[in-house]
Design goal:
By secondary structure, the chain is an alpha/beta fold. Helices cover 31% and strands 19% of the residues.
Length: 410
């Protein structure tokens, strides 16, 4: 696992620093995302500001304005994966120096580094603490049930759950030609509605068709904001791992898609290729996969286990939060940053301290655990499908957090 020495500031924290007495990781020293200046939540507001959309300011100062902007999000393709597989992604690897306005640096996903959270950050231009999609699954304070924010189960009113207007909608209202080009399956999902709606949605099954149509939509307005998406890099990483032949094949295909789109850009256009998170393969052994459903100590006092293997929300039974925190710190504290809800909020895990809305505060676990080492907390009974995934993500390590912002201009 990389220590992030080429990214997290002029004097980056090593991931083995910041330990408390007894070797426990200090949650206040976790390498939090670059909210406000270099995270996924800052991308669309910066592009919209450059297009003159009222109410937005350029949060990523390295990006120059363009009349036409396209965001191509490749699910699961982190910065470290491109660097490690340059032979399979020659086009994207050759452009790493263009990332973040030519600085050659990545941006950060946000915490948790997972699809629902990141897509909401992209589309709304707000941090997780504000939009409230705070993980793969979180507790709904109104019902006490776990809410899966990717599959939207159990059903919850989307706009009550996430009421902020998307950047696409505000840009459309300001006269920018706005479009999303993705799989038809995503046309009217609740996640699309709360994170990516506004303008027009165009469904295309084939990747090549998506790239061609995205280029057409860019040319359809004097000012255009177009989003397109490809998911199978992530899917094959989960099933087979990020060093498998199947994953490498998908990376090669995604690289060709990016090149195809780049070669069709209309004039006065900027294309940004980014991702929602990176991914790490977790070994199949008892030391690397800690099964919550088989661990009596971790289960004690826990009413619900949310999140995912590398970014857990832990909801305690009434009155047991302090005890649950103490046990999770004792059992996992040398491998995970383990914090109380208030500690995680104060440390800026979900956004700048003080940014958590009252609407979203209760969705955060009484205890939050983010993996530092190559380890996960699975739940073999409650989450059988997720527990056998090879590639995983969610935490704040560089391999999960750092995503490209590769730029091509016409």
């Amino acid at each position: 696992m990389t220590d992030g020495a080429d990214w997290y500031g002029a004097a980056p924290p090593r991931l083995d620093e910041g330990r408390l007495d007894g070797g426990r990781l200090d949650p206040a020293r976790a390498p939090v995302p670059e909210y406000g200046k270099g995270s996924l939540a800052d991308l669309l507001p910066t592009l919209a500001a450059g297009q003159g959309v009222p109410g937005f300011a350029a949060a990523i100062p390295e990006l120059a304005p363009a009349d036409r902007n396209c965001v191509f999000l490749i699910d699961g393709l982190g910065w470290e994966q491109i660097r490690a597989h340059a032979d399979e992604a020659p086009f994207l690897a050759s452009l790493l120096g263009s990332s973040r306005g030519g600085t050659g640096r990545p941006i950060t996903a946000g915490f948790p580094a997972t699809t629902a959270t990141s897509l909401a950050s992209v589309g709304t231009g707000t941090v997780p603490a504000d939009h409230g999609l705070l993980g793969y699954t979180v507790r709904d304070p109104a019902t006490g049930a776990l809410m899966n924010q990717l599959r939207w189960k159990p059903w919850t009113d989307p706009h009550a759950w996430q009421p902020h207007a998307t950047v696409f909608r505000l840009a459309h209202e300001a006269g920018v030609h706005t479009a999303q080009v993705s799989s038809p399956a995503f046309a009217d999902t609740p996640l699309t509605r709360v994170a990516l709606s506004g303008g027009t949605f165009h469904g295309r099954l084939g990747g090549e068709d998506r790239m061609d149509l995205a280029a057409e939509q860019l040319a359809a307005g004097d000012r255009s904001l177009v989003y397109t998406y490809y998911s199978e890099v992530d899917g094959n990483g989960h099933r087979f791992g990020v060093d498998s032949d199947a994953w490498r094949g998908q990376l090669m295909y995604a690289d060709r898609l990016a090149q195809r789109l780049a070669e069709q850009l209309p004039p006065r256009c900027a294309l940004y290729v980014t991702a929602d998170h990176g991914m790490i393969d977790i070994p199949f052994d008892e030391e690397s996969r800690i099964d919550f459903d088989e661990d009596w100590a971790l289960r004690a006092g826990v009413a619900l286990l949310g999140g995912e293997g590398r970014a857990r929300h832990v909801y305690a039974v009434p009155g047991a939060a302090a005890d649950v925190l103490a046990v999770w710190q004792d059992v996992l504290g040398e491998q995970f940053w383990v914090a109380s809800r208030d500690e995680a909020v104060a440390a800026g895990w979900f956004g700048p301290p003080g940014a958590v809305e009252a609407r979203t505060h209760g969705r955060i676990g009484d205890v939050v655990a983010a993996a530092r080492d190559d380890v996960v907390v699975t739940a073999s009974v409650a989450e059988p499908r997720e527990s056998v995934m090879v590639g995983m993500h969610g935490s704040m390590t560089p391999v999960e957090q750092l995503v490209p912002l590769i730029e091509v201009r016409s």
